[in-house]
Every structure is written in C-alpha cells, then in structure tokens.
Amino acid sequence: MTILVEKRSGYRLITLNRPERLNALTLRMGDALYAALGEAEADQSCRAVLLTGAGRGFCAGQDLAAVGEAPLGDILEHYNPLIRKIRALPLPVVCAVNGVAAGAGANLALACDIVLAARSASFVQAFARIGLIPDCGGTWFLPRLVGAARARGLAMLAEPLPAEMAAEWGLIWQAVEDGKLIDEAHVLAARLATQATQGLALTKRALDAAEINDLDRQLDVERDLQAEAGRTADYTEGVRAFLEKRPPVFTGR
Ligand code: T3D
To answer: What is the pLDDT averaged over residues 178-186?
Structure first.
C-alpha cells in the first residue's frame, strides 16, 4: 500500500508509504492519495487531515524511475487534481514534513494549509536539476510565500532550503524538533478537528480568492463568505459560548 490511512478521533492521518524511494510519487500513488482525500472529505466525522511520509523522507517528487509511465504533461493530469483537491478540501490539511521534500513532493507540502517540518528536513525545488520547471503549483506557491527574488533563487538554483530557514522565510508555518514533529502535528490536527470546520473551509476559500482579487473584489468575497459562516451552527455556538464565558463546543456544522 503506497498510501496508508488511519482514522483518528476527528481527523485522518494519511501517510505516503514508499520509504525505500523517499516516498517518490507514481501515478497510482498520486491517484490513491487523491482517493484518500476524497474519502476523508466524504466522512462526516473527519474534520481535518494530517499528511506525512513514512521513513526518512517526506516525498522526493515524481519517481524518476517511473517517468516512462506516461508522457511528461500527462503525469500532471494525475498530480494537478491532487493539488486542487487539497486546496479545495473543506477541511484543514496539516502537513508534517518528516524529511526531504523535493520536486513535486515539496509543492505537495506547500499546497497544505499548515506545514510543520522537522528541523532536519529540507525543501528542494529539484526540477532545475533535471531540466524541468517547478510544477504541482510551485510557480504559484513560491512567489506568494517567499517573494519574487527568493522564488527565483529556489527555482533556478534547486538548492535545499533547511526547515528552519523555510520557516524564517515564511515558506512554512514552523520548524520543530525532529523527535517532536509527529506528536506536535497530531496535536495540531486534533485541535483543528475540534474547531468550526465550515468557518475554516470558508477561510481557505477566502485566502485563495485573495490571491487574484483586488481589495474591492475581495471585500465582496469576504461579505459573501462571512454571510455563509454566519449561517452555521458553529457560529451560533461560538457567540453563545463567548457570552456564557465557556469554551465553545463546535460540531463542524
Ligand atoms: O510530467 C511531469 O511534469 C513530471 C513531473 C515531475 C515532478 C517532479 O517531481 S520532478 C523532480 C523529481 N525529483 C527529483 O528530482 C528529486 C530526486 N531525488 C534527489 O534529488 C535526492 O534523492 C534527494 C535530494 C531527494 C534526497 O537525497 P538523499 O541523498 O537523501 O537520498 P538518495 O540516496 O538520493 O535517495 C534514496 C533512495 O531514493 C535512492 O535509491 P537507492 O540508491 O537507495 O536505491 C534514490 O535513487 C531514491 N530516490 C530518491 N528520489 C527519487 C528516487 N527514486 C526515484 N525517483 C526519485 N525522485
């Protein structure tokens, strides 16, 4: 099984599982990951996803021994839906980058909502080393996360960016002690699973929309999505809990 799924209380742990190849992606593995995300979305009890890798790497990108599986552009017909799925998933997706994240593997991580990385992990836009361009959203994520100059350096030099520097640059949320990574990621996923799920899903939509909107248009987006958030039971509960001076009990509805 190249993708392992474990149901936890309120969330699912999804593990990339080809450790002998640093979890390099094959088309079947990409499709299996897509299916696992779809199953998480369809499960009413699942309110967050935690993605990580088995072994010493997170994901080394496309399996270069399997590129003959399909023409280059066709490979992305399998991986692009994966990136779109993560971005559009109405659940928070936490990524625990346990080791090197290279090529499509780096950008798979960057597609997630909150990225934690072990201090020993690194991010490599490895594409330039083999004559390719950053894909799986790399050319979109990089300049938005770290700015134009750093995006170009990362993409064109293909040097590993250590986790701590990735956090300093704003590429990821946090670098964490290696031995604490998975526990901290579980705590975060479990915490997110108790939050106002629909509000978080709408937040994802608003932040993604902001990437292309001017302020005027974005204010309209916020108005419309806030109206949706305001119709959720969790909003009612959040306000009631505040007024009653107690912690809210959100149901994700
Ligand atoms: O259509 C399209 O658009 C194509 C899509 C492309 C998307 C992409 O992702 S392109 C980029 C592909 N990925 C890479 O170029 C990264 C290749 N890997 C590396 O540069 C290095 O392995 C790492 C920097 C990631 C890690 O280095 P290191 O020294 O820690 O590990 P290693 O010894 O290189 O790798 C360990 C094993 O995993 C090794 O196998 P072995 O020798 O023990 O049998 C290595 O060959 C294998 N491995 C690592 N990455 C890949 C891989 N095997 C296949 N494909 C890989 N991408």
So the answer is: 98
Q: Distance between terminal CA atoms of the chain?
A: 33
Q: Which of 192, 213, 230 is the last residue of a domain?
A: 192
Q: How far is CA 36 from CA 49, 107, 121, in A?
A: 10, 18, 25
**pLDDT (tens digit, 9 = 90+) per residue, 140-156?**
999 999 999 999 999 99
**Structural domains in the chain (count):** 2
Going from the Cα of 95 to the center of ligand 1, the distance in angstroms, rounded, reads 20
Task: Work out the average pLDDT over 20-30.
Answer: 97
Question: Containing domain of residue 219, as a range?
Answer: 197-243
The Å distance, Cα 16 to ligand 1 centre, comes to: 15
CA–CA dist 82, 229 (Å, integer): 26
SS3 97: strand
